[in-house]
Amino acid sequence: MKKYIIGNWKMNLDYAEAKSLLQEVAKAQDSFDKTAEIVVCPPLVYISVFHELLKNNEWIKLGAQNVYCENNGAFTGEVSPTQLKSMGVSYVIIGHSERRQYFGEDNKMLLAKVKAVLKQGMTPIFCCGEHLQVRKSNVFKEFVMKQIEDVLFELSADEMQKVIIAYEPIWAIGTGQTATAAQAQEIHALIRLRLEKQFGAKVSTQVPIIYGGSMKPDNAGELLGQKDIDGGLIGGASLDAESFAAISKVS
Ligand code: PEP
Asked: Where along this sequence does the record place binding of substrate (predicted)?
């Protein structure tokens, strides 16, 4: 399966900085793995300018960090799937732990968003993962499986095979503390097994399951070398073009 290297810039960088980082990434094409799918998810406010800047660029795909579940209407401050689609967006992060935690996004909302994004032919990147407390309590596997079941198991097999799952242990996000390759692989394999039971072998082998949580050039090789880790959702390290490129090349 193709490897997915997805940069989540979060709410960082002013316009000049964001534009310059995009240009650095674009210039570094030869440093990226040509076989990987490279996706950049800038703050939403820059999406239309990035769409223009990437007009002649075929290898950097545009992603959004969030979306609303309706296509238009009185939803002040929100951005719709059709609007993103019209700006050349092909990937949308849904259910990032920061959105669940700070903006109270629940499973019902996440399912509506996943469906709305799929309807526009874009790829949802559905995030799941446990807090440190849950990890320590030893029910973390059930916790993560339930996050997936409550949302993704409401989809048809046809819809499911168009989704990317990002496993992001919250204790590893932005902390510098990465899950070990074995810890990540254990959950990824379990997710794939549950997908197989629910949707069949074909879907389970087609759905990319990527890892997120302090992925950097020096730990990416081991993580991306695992059988069930199909790429990375990268926060901090994606703000540096050289590190972002290096992560794509390591495995
Ligand atoms: C993320 O925000 O999805 C993430 C994985 O961040 P970081 O790489 O900084 O831990």
From this structure: 8-10, 174, 214, 235-236
